[in-house]
Every structure is written in structure tokens, then in C-alpha cells.
TrEMBL record:
<keyword id="KW-0547">Nucleotide-binding</keyword>
<dbReference type="InterPro" id="IPR041664">
    <property type="entry name" value="AAA_16"/>
</dbReference>
<dbReference type="Pfam" id="PF13191">
    <property type="entry name" value="AAA_16"/>
</dbReference>
<dbReference type="InterPro" id="IPR011990">
    <property type="entry name" value="TPR-like_helical_dom_sf"/>
</dbReference>
<keyword id="KW-0067">ATP-binding</keyword>
<protein>
    <submittedName>
        <fullName>LuxR family transcriptional regulator</fullName>
    </submittedName>
</protein>
<dbReference type="InterPro" id="IPR027417">
    <property type="entry name" value="P-loop_NTPase"/>
</dbReference>
<feature type="domain" description="HTH luxR-type">
    <location>
        <begin position="887"/>
        <end position="952"/>
    </location>
</feature>
<dbReference type="InterPro" id="IPR016032">
    <property type="entry name" value="Sig_transdc_resp-reg_C-effctor"/>
</dbReference>
<dbReference type="InterPro" id="IPR000792">
    <property type="entry name" value="Tscrpt_reg_LuxR_C"/>
</dbReference>
<dbReference type="InterPro" id="IPR003593">
    <property type="entry name" value="AAA+_ATPase"/>
</dbReference>
<dbReference type="InterPro" id="IPR036388">
    <property type="entry name" value="WH-like_DNA-bd_sf"/>
</dbReference>
<dbReference type="Pfam" id="PF00196">
    <property type="entry name" value="GerE"/>
</dbReference>
Length: 956
């Protein structure tokens, strides 16, 4: 019988169907599925310790992808991988899975089988006439066991059984026997999708046939993705990360459903900013309906009622007319559609489930459900909502009640419900009360803006703009839509144009429009000069009509830009805005003079002052502030605590900022930037780089110039401290170019100058590094940015060391470290001490170098700065007595960049090859080689290689 003679791997899940079974070995190179690294590590430990593992979870959660990644890892280690994937029809076909397994292994695995066993295999695979009584069960059991044992004798084997629930009973029996006798070198991963159950416990898909008793294997549940992981998944598939939070809620973290939603959005060709809601047609609807298919009619009826309720519980559904709600909800929970808490609260596992239930139900049935819920709701706000949704006839009395309920929800701090009710009040208002309906639509749009609900703001705006509204009303709803766009202000030019046109002759409205334009010009257009002009005009117009609130916001924006441009008037303008604000007492803090004052304290490294003011604001914002206020506060707190070296607090605040961002459906770029800073301080350099790269992609996606520069800075900084000099140079030069294009002057707002200077120095561009420091120093001194000058001093000390002035470098680094400590900048202090240790090492003062490194480690340990602590663990190369003092001294005179080039050339690289690998020009390589030859006193590449080999030769 023929067997495959060349390895084959399983097809990619979702692209082409899996073969029934596949055998393979060799190298593999596939990244771990998004969000599954920890699960993969756990799976590897289980397989190492027990040899058996079962991956389980609902359809689409990514079980097969995890198994594929484990197979890739095994293959990369040189193990044999056998992949068995029964098809749906195999469940009813005796021996189908076992035959597929036998057909997939190479010929050598069967060559040593005794004759009866080979005959049994031939009968199983239908390659000979069946015996009178069918196949010989004992011979066949021994044959399957022998095949697996023979494979394991050649090399370790990983057997992956995908869709194990489809294995037929006979094959399951054969595999159970074979696995029971298998040697330890055979490890097994089974992938199983539990069958859903209907009411009464009827089997919805056939119970899976177990391959082992429960005690023989660990069961690993593949969980849904978290919201942050969902954002990464969307970026990976080139889908808009801005909607990660909403897609996560809609999908419940199920990757297959999430990608279906994301692709439906992409297929709809609707701009993200204009999407009233996530698209629920096409593939997303189909996936959701397949998830609901196992539910019986009674279960669907109970689930519909739960979908209509705001806070569904078993007791509420029972009172609303579902007396058997407990049994029906239990069936839905077994099917993975909902989860039930101990108090009976019902939560759908994916937001698309209730929305699809509602969408696929006629209005009459929905109305009956809302009416039933209205009769039993114990909260008057919920009762009014249900009564309004049960009624399709406009009713002013009812609309007035809903409007009151919206005010109540707002006072309770439930901004999302308040926005929904405000729009419902407008839509319930009779057409005959045209002016009142328009007023309520404006209120609804502005309420949606406070709740960051772009979908509701767009619905209200579309309704109003289709009617005979006043220019003032049109401007207000358009401004509300703009206010829900967050960082994504590109593709909204039409709204700005119409708002400007409608605000003609209305100073108060024009001031509000100019204020939004001032924000757009700096974020989306990268033009702070134009932004300042718009802010100045906005402030003047607002003051002319006594609008202190808008004037304060405009002056705040002007002060923000003045700081960027290095204007000495920035603080005076900010003080004016703060004075107006204190009399106006705005409800929120985002874009206020108060929060900008705190950020200026952050830029100036007045960190204790900034922290205290932020913590004073936090309770108020958390209790009743808009969600964007909370996001701004937590993000700023993360930046402050990261700068202070309070690493655990920085990570906590950054995580909270991201969670709120994703929940609100806003761009995650700013929150990812904060997480990059926090991870750099106290988490992991690798995670920091990952978050920074995500922030770069999100900022580019949104057209956000401000956070693009910030996230590139965060990335370049990590690249530099982890030794990726070429990457750091490329990234930080992008920052420099972007900041230059935006006319940024003040070096305290984004401290890329010292990082780029150090990267230039590490790239052996000493003169360029010194020129950069010479440019930024006078600006920082003129503006009084003392800690910026300290950062420059640290790099200048490294320049001194590179120029051979190591004594001066040591003195300056010691002084700079002490001054950083005096400012409470402990991470910067530790970084100076690491630099000091490296300079001392170059001077061959090993005890001094060790003392400096130990001091740095103590600083980082107290701060909880885990990644920086790892840098102090590097040990200097041991002293080599075979190296002559003169040679050792010559080697120590080489910079790190020169040493990298010398090694490349010594290994045989041409100038062109070395230039390409080091991201340098050929001329730079030639000039650097000349200096290397002079320092090592060599005249050729051969002599250079000999010198390097001699310096590295072990002692005899």
C-alpha cells in the first residue's frame, strides 16, 4: 500500500480544509497565535510532564491554531508530527479515523509488522477483501500500537488529533489501546469542541469518544481573547484597531467571530467614523446564527427576553412570562451562549448574540417582550425605557418621561444609558412638535458625545440634518459627531466645512468650530502654527460674546501650542485659561487648563505636584466624569508614575486607561503609548516595544501626528537600551523629522534628543551626536528645562568617553546621577550608573565598574524596574591573561560601533556588505575602518582578523 514519502504539514485553519491526516517533521517558522503565548507554554509543560493534553473550548475560539503552533514548535525541535483530523462524515463510518492515521504514516512504520497485523491493516484500509467476520480486532489493535511505537523509536512524536469529537467509536477504541501501550516519546494533543445540548439534555451533536480516561490527561480550556489582544489581532489582519473594544464586546473575544465582524466592516466600505453600529450582515450574521442554531424554540424565546432587558436575571425573566427560565438558561449556558452568575444574572458570551436575536425577531414579538419587561421592572428608568420600546406610535407624554429618565441615568453616572434614552426621547416625540423633536435630537447628540457613543451621535445627527433645522442646531450636532471621533480626525473635512458655513455670523458657534479646528490642525494635519491661529481666533470670538467656557478651552489649546513652539508666553496664556476656568467650573477635565497645568508639571519633572493633583481629581472623574476624562487621567498618571519610577502604579494606571479606551471604542494609540512607557519602566522591554509598535500603527491608521511621534519615541528608546542601534537610529530619526515638520521647539515635551544623540554615538557618528547636543542645549537652557540638560549631560559624558576623555566622563556621570536622584528621577539615575559602569570597565577599573553596576541594580530593585534590573545583570568579559597589555589597551580604545564593524570585516564581510548590515554608507564604513586600523596598528583585513583572533584567544 502506498504511503507519503515526503513530509506534509496541516493546512492553515480556515484557508483550506485539513487533510484527514498528515505526517511531517522538519523546521517550522510560525509565530504563536495572538494572545496564546502563555497557553502554549502551559501546553508544552503539560506534554513534557504528562504526555497527554486536551484542548477544549467553543467553536472559533482558536483551538486548532494553538495545536498548530504546538506542532510547529515540535517540528522545529526535530520531532515527528502526525496530524489526524477526522471529517464530519467520519463519525458514522467505522474505522475511518484509524484508516486515515495509518494512511498518513511513512512506509517504514509498517514494514516491521507481523503478517496478521499487516493483513488487518489492509482490511481496515479496504486494500484487500474483508475477512468473513470483519477485521481481526486484536491484530488491528496491535498493528496501530506497533505503528506508533515504530515512529517513536526513530524520533519523538507529537500526535495531534483535531476535532476529536468526530472520531468514530471503532477508531477511538483502537487509539485508546495504542496510546495505552505507547512509549513516553509519543505525546498527544487532542482538540475537542464540546457538543451543545438542548433543553432536556438531548445530545446536540454526539458525545465525543474519549481517547483516554480523564486522569491520564490535563484539560486546557482555550479562553476568549482579551480586548487588548483583540486589538492586536485586528492590526495583524489589517482591520481598524479603533473598533477593537466594540468588536471584542460583539464577539465575546471569539477570534473567528471577531474577524467576521471586522471583515464585514471592511466589506461595508463605511468609514469608521461614520459607522452607526458594527455591521451585522454577511459573514458576521452567518457565524452568529450558526452559534444560535442548537437552541430550541423555548430557549430562543427566553434568550430574546434576556436580550431585550437591560439587566437580565433568571428571576426577572421568570416574572416576565418564562416560568421555565432556569432550565432554558441552563441549556443556553451549556451551549456556550450565556453565562450565569450565582445570583442568576444573565450575560451573553458575545454581544452579537443578543443583537442577532433581536434583529431576527419581528417587531410584534419584540414589542410583547418589552411590554412584559415593563410590567415587572423594579427600576422606573428601565420601566420607561421598555414602555417606549414597546410603542411605535409617537407620544409626547411618553417622550417627556423618557427625557426625564435620561436625566436620571446621567445623574447616576450611566452616560451610555443616558445617551440611548435621550435619543429614544427624541424619536418618540411626535412629528407635530417639530421644534421640540429637534431640540431633543441636539441633546441626544451631545449626550452621545459625552458618552463617546459615535453610533448614537451619528443617528441623532442624521435625523436632525434630514429636517428643517436651524444653522445653530446643525452646528451643534456636527460638533457632537466630531467630539466622538477621538484621535481619528481624518476624513472628516466635510463636517468641518459645513460647520464653518452654518456658523457664519454667529460668534459663539464660530468660536466652537474654530476650537475643534485648532485640535484637528495639530493632530491630523501636524500644523501647530495653524492650530495656534485657530485657537487665538476662537478665544477672541468666545470672549466677545461672554462665553467663558469656550474661551478657556481655546486659551488652553493656545497655551499647549505655545509650549510646543517654545514660546515664553505659554505659561501666561495657561494662567489666563485657568482663571477663566475657575469661574466657569467645567464639568470635565479633558482639554482643560487644569489638566494641561498638570501635564506642564510632568514636562518640567515636577512629578510629585503632578501626581498629587491627578489623584485629587480621580474620585470626581471616576464618579461622574465622561469616559474620555477618565482615560486622560489614567494615561497621564501612568506617564507620571513611570517617570517617577513607581513602576507597579504606572502599569496599573496604563492598563486601566487601555481598558476604558477599548470599552469606549476610541483609538487605542494613546493608551498603547502609555503602556509602552509603563512596560519600559517596570514590565518588559519586549512588551514595551510591542505596545509602541501597536501605537505607531494605530496612530498612522488615525492620522494622529502627535501620538505617532510619541509612540516612535517610545519604540526608539527601547530599541536603543536593548542594543538595536540601527533600529533606534531609524526610528528616532523619524521622530526628529516629524517633530521638525511640526515646528516643535520645546525639548521637554518629548525627550528624543538625548536618545537620538546616544544612538548616533553608538553608531559611531560622534560628531553628529555632539552637534545635536549643541543644538538642543541652548534651547533647553533658555526655556529653563533643567532635567533636559541633565539628560544631555549623560550623553555628553559618553561622548567624552568615546573621545578618550574617560576621567572627565566619569566625573560628569557621577555628578549627573546625583542630580537625577535629587529630582526624584530614579530610573534616569540608574541609567547614568549603568553608563558609569561601562566607562569604568573601558578604563579597566573593574572594581569601580562593579560598584557602579551594583548601585544601579539597587536603584532599579527599589523601584521595581524589572527590565532595567536585567541590564545590570550583564557581566564584563573575564580578564584574559594571554592578551598582551598593549593589545588589550588597543581593543579598549575601539568604540562599540567600531568593534562591531571590525568583527564583521574580520569575518570576511566586504565594505558594501558591512554597510548594508550596519545601516551605514560605504563612505562611513571606509572612514571607520581607517580609524580601526590606526587604533589596532594593522594595515590589512588579514592583519585585522589576526589581531581580533589574537585578542579573543583563550589562555593556555
Amino acid at each position: 500500500m502506498p504511503y507519503p514519502s515526503t513530509p506534509c504539514a496541516p493546512a492553515s485553519h480556515g484557508a483550506t480544509p485539513y487533510a484527514a491526516a498528515a505526517y511531517g517533521s522538519g523546521q517550522a517558522d510560525r509565530a504563536a497565535p495572538v494572545g496564546r503565548a502563555e497557553l502554549l507554554s502551559r501546553l508544552e509543560r503539560v506534554l513534557l510532564n504528562r504526555g497527554r493534553a486536551l484542548l477544549t473550548g467553543p467553536p472559533g475560539v482558536g483551538k486548532t491554531e494553538v495545536a498548530e503552533a504546538a506542532a510547529d514548535q515540535a517540528s522545529a525541535r526535530g520531532e515527528t508530527v502526525v496530524w489526524l483530523a477526522p471529517q464530519p462524515a467520519d463519525h458514522a463510518m467505522p474505522g475511518a479515523a484509524a484508516a486515515a492515521l495509518i494512511a498518513s504514516v511513512p512506509a517504514f512504520a509498517l514494514e516491521g509488522l507481523p503478517g496478521p497485523q499487516r493483513d488487518a491493516v489492509a482490511v481496515l484500509c479496504r486494500e484487500s477483501v474483508a475477512l468473513e467476520n470483519g477485521w481481526d480486532p486484536i491484530a488491528l489493535r496491535l498493528a496501530v500500537a506497533g505503528v506508533l511505537r515504530t515512529l517513536a523509536e526513530r524520533s519523538p512524536v507529537l500526535l495531534v488529533v483535531d476535532d476529536a469529537q468526530r472520531i468514530d467509536a471503532d477508531s477511538a477504541d483502537l487509539l485508546r489501546f495504542a496510546l495505552h501501550l505507547a512509549p513516553p516519546a509519543l505525546r498527544v494533543v487532542a482538540v475537542e469542541t464540546p457538543a451543545p445540548y438542548a433543553v432536556g439534555g438531548a445530545d446536540g451533536g454526539g458525545a465525543p469518544m474519549p481517547l483516554w480516561v480523564a486522569s491520564e490527561a490535563d484539560v486546557l480550556l482555550v479562553p476568549p481573547l482579551q480586548a487588548d489582544e483583540m486589538a492586536e489581532l485586528l492590526v495583524h489582519h489589517r482591520l481598524p484597531s479603533r473598533l477593537a473594544g466594540r468588536i471584542h464586546r460583539a464577539s465575546g473575544g471569539n477570534p473567528r467571530l471577531a474577524l467576521a465582524v471586522g471583515r464585514s466592516l471592511a466589506d461595508s466600505r463605511t468609514p469608521v467614523h461614520h459607522a452607526e453600529a458594527l455591521p451585522l450582515s454577511g459573514r458576521a450574521r452567518d457565524v452568529t446564527r450558526r452559534m444560535l442554531a442548537p437552541a430550541s424554540a423555548p430557549v430562543r424565546a427566553t434568550l430574546l427576553l434576556a436580550a431585550l432587558a437591560l439587566r437580565p436575571t433568571t428571576a426577572l425573566l421568570r416574572r416576565a412570562g418564562r416560568p421555565t427560565a432556569e432550565a432554558e438558561l441552563a441549556a443556553a449556558e451549556r451551549a456556550g451562549l450565556i453565562s450565569l452568575t450565582e445570583d442568576g444574572t444573565v450575560a451573553f458570551t458575545a454581544g452579537l448574540l443578543p443583537s442577532t436575536l433581536v434583529h431576527d425577531t419581528c417587531w410584534t414579538e419584540r414589542s410583547r417582550g418589552h411590554a412584559a419587561l415593563a410590567a415587572v421592572a423594579d427600576d422606573p428608568v428601565e420601566a420607561v425605557r421598555h414602555r417606549a420600546l414597546a410603542n411605535d406610535v409617537p407620544d409626547e407624554d411618553l417622550a417627556a418621561e423618557v427625557a426625564v429618565a435620561a436625566d436620571t441615568a446621567r445623574r447616576r453616572g450611566n452616560s451610555a444609558l443616558a445617551a440611548e434614552l435621550a435619543l429614544l426621547a427624541a424619536e418618540t416625540t411626535p412629528a407635530g412638535l417639530g421644534r421640540r423633536r429637534l431640540e431633543r435630537l441636539v441633546d441626544a447628540a451631545e449626550e452621545a458625545a459625552r458618552a463617546a457613543r459615535a453610533d448614537l451621535a451619528m443617528r441623532a445627527a442624521a435625523d436632525l440634518l434630514a429636517r428643517d433645522a436651524t444653522p445653530a442646531d446643525r452646528v451643534r450636532v456636527r460638533l457632537a459627531v466630531l467630539d466622538t471621533a477621538g484621535q481619528g480626525l481624518t476624513d472628516l473635512d466635510e463636517i468641518y466645512v459645513h460647520a464653518m458655513e452654518d456658523s457664519e455670523g454667529e460668534p459663539a458657534l464660530r468660536a466652537a468650530v474654530q476650537l475643534r479646528l485648532a485640535v484637528k490642525y495639530v493632530l491630523a494635519d501636524g500644523d501647530p502654527v495653524r492650530s495656534r491661529t485657530a485657537a487665538v481666533e476662537s478665544a477672541a470670538l468666545a470672549m466677545s460674546v461672554g462665553d467663558r467656557h469656550t474661551a478657556a478651552q481655546a486659551l488652553t489649546q493656545q497655551a499647549r501650542i505655545d509650549r510646543v513652539l517654545g514660546s515664553p508666553d505659554a505659561e501666561r496664556t495657561l494662567a489666563e485659561a485657568r482663571a477663566l476656568e475657575m469661574t466657569d467650573r467645567p464639568l470635565g477635565v479633558r482639554n482643560t487648563a487644569q489638566i494641561l497645568t498638570i501635564r506642564h508639571a510632568l514636562f518640567d519633572d515636577r512629578l510629585t505636584e503632578a501626581r498629587d493633583q491627578l489623584y485629587a481629581l480621580l474620585p470626581l472623574v471616576e464618579r461622574r466624569g465622561p469616559v474620555e476624562d477618565a482615560i486622560e487621567l489614567f494615561r497621564t498618571l501612568a506617564e507620571v508614575e513611570a517617570r517617577r519610577g513607581q513602576c507597579a502604579a504606572a502599569l496599573a494606571h496604563a492598563g486601566r486607561s487601555l481598558a476604558l479606551t477599548l470599552e469606549a471604542g476610541l483609538s487605542p494609540g494613546p493608551a498603547w503609548y502609555a503602556l509602552a512607557l509603563a512596560e519600559t519602566a517596570g514590565g518588559s522591554f519586549a512588551r514595551a516595544a510591542g505596545y509602541a509598535r501597536r501605537s505607531v500603527r494605530a496612530s498612522e491608521e488615525e492620522g494622529d501626528h502627535v501620538f505617532l511621534s510619541r509612540s516612535l519615541y517610545a519604540l526608539g528608546r527601547v530599541q536603543l537600551v536593548t542594543g538595536d542601534v540601527a533600529g533606534a537610529l531609524e526610528t528616532l530619526r523619524r521622530v526628529r523629522d516629524g517633530e521638525s515638520a511640526q515646528c516643535a521647539v520645546d525639548p521637554s515635551m518629548l525627550r528624543w534628543h538625548e536618545e537620538l544623540a546616544e544612538a548616533l554615538l553608538a553608531g559611531d557618528a560622534l560628531e553628529e551626536a555632539q552637534a545635536l547636543l549643541a543644538d538642543v542645549g541652548p534651547v533647553a537652557e533658555r526655556l529653563g528645562r533643567s532635567t533636559v540638560l541633565l539628560g544631555c549631560d549623560r550623553v555628553y559624558a559618553l561622548c567624552l568617553a568615546a573621545g578618550g576623555k574617560t576621567d572627565e566622563a566619569v566625573d560628569l556621570l557621577v555628578e549627573t546621577a546625583d542630580r537625577f536622584a535629587g529630582h526624584g528621577l530614579v530610573l534616569e539615575q540608574g541609567r547614568c550608573l549603568i553608563a558609569l559602569a561601562r566607562v569604568e570597565r573601558r578604563r579597566r577599573r573593574r572594581s569601580a565598574a562593579q560598584a557602579a553596576m551594583q548601585a544601579a541594580a539597587a536603584v532599579f530593585e527599589r523601584a521595581g524596574a524589572v527590565p532595567w534590573l536585567g541590564l545590570t545583570a550583564e557581566s564584563p568579559p573575564p580578564a584574559d591573561p594571554a592578551v598582551a597589555p598593549a593589545a588589550g589597551s588597543a581593543l579598549s580604545r575601539l568604540t562599540e560601533a567600531e568593534l562591531r564593524l571590525a568583527r564583521l570585516v574580520g569575518e570576511g564581510a566586504s565594505n558594501q556588505e558591512a554597510a548594508a548590515r550596519l545601516y551605514l554608507s560605504v563612505k562611513t564604513v571606509e572612514a571607520r575602518l581607517t580609524r580601526i586600523y590606526q587604533k589596532l596598528d594593522v594595515r590589512s583585513r588579514a592583519q585585522l582578523a589576526t589581531a581580533l583572533n589574537g585578542l579573543a584567544a583563550p589562555s593556555r
